[in-house]
Fold this sequence. Notes:
Oligomer: single chain
Number of domains: 1
Helix content: 40-55%
Order of helices and strands: EHEHEHEHEHEHEHEHH
CATH superfamily: Metal-dependent hydrolases
Shape: globular
CATH topology: TIM Barrel
Low-confidence stretches: none
Number of helices: 9
CATH architecture: Alpha-Beta Barrel
Structural class: alpha/beta
Largest sheet: 8 strands, parallel
Bound molecules: zinc ion
CATH class: Alpha Beta
Radius of gyration: 17 Å
Amino acid sequence: MLIDSHCHLAYPGLVEDEAGVLARARQAGVGGFVNISTRRDEWERVIAAAERHADVFASVGIHPHEADAHTDVGTAALVAAAAHPRVVGIGETGLDYHYDRSDRQRQQASFRAHCAAARATGLPLIVHSRDAEDDTIAILEDELGQGSFPVLFHCFAGTQGLAARALALGAFISLSGIVTFRNARALQEVARTLPEDRLMVETDAPFLAPVPVRGRTCEPAHVAHTARFLAELRGTAPEALAAAATHNTRRLFSKMQA
Ligand SMILES: [Zn+2]
Ligand SMILES: [Zn+2]
């Protein structure tokens, strides 16, 4: 059994056929879904999907792209929304200096507000980091120094150095379909050497469909391709890889068990 630790069921491409998307995933052996929010106006919808389906869970957060549009959403709003029994994580949050769609200072302020919410609730922080390695680590080190909370680097596509720094902070690392891409040799080397007790899998659907369905709309069912690829890459049995990733996901998102 697999868990898609990061998907966007409320996004166009998936939301139109929620029942079909989930049925195809379950057919492919996916028995859990973390439905991630990126804007304040998505929170009700990701939580509603988690209320409709026993195997769907929700997160509350503001994507770094959306920081400019959400200067009014701080720690208190996140903590209040996270009290819902189906909300298992805080995010996605973080820093994206690749697209720079929001002001970097505002991204950092929003990231810190999410860190404080993770600390206050004990829920894991779901981190998106792109071309912002040094600032991501510096902020996490500073915030963790004020009191610990669990951390997940989602859709990891960073260097071996970033992986080492993330692991040193106690973080989990989730791999998406990017790791299956032919041009992802460096990332594959990182994925091959990640400790088995920190590794997770995700789709980031509807984006980033893995080989052999690359280019199509990504669905949570496709996490099975990524897990199979990783098992082969790491020289482990697919069942063992799936069991480890699922165990890690349940350990991190501990509220899933409640
Ligand atoms: Zn992301
Ligand atoms: Zn995402």
